[in-house]
Amino acid sequence: MPILQAVIPTAITLCIPLYAWRPPAATVALIAVGTVAAVAGVARDSLIPAALIVGFVAMTCSLALTSLYGLALATWIVVGVFSPGTQLAMLSAIVIIVIGVVSGSIGFAIRQQNERAVMLATRLEATEQEVAEQLRHERDLIADELHDIVAHEITIVALHAAVLEHTEDSTTRTQSQTAIREAAVQALTDIRRVLGMVRGEESLSPERVPSRDGIPGTVADVTRELTRAGISVTTDIPDQVRLPSTSLVALTRVMRESSTNVLKHATGATNVHIALTVQRGWAHLEFRDDSPPARTAGLPASGYGIMRLRERFRVFGGSFSAERRPEGWVVSASLPLES
Question: What's residue 170's pLDDT?
Answer without folding.
Answer: 81
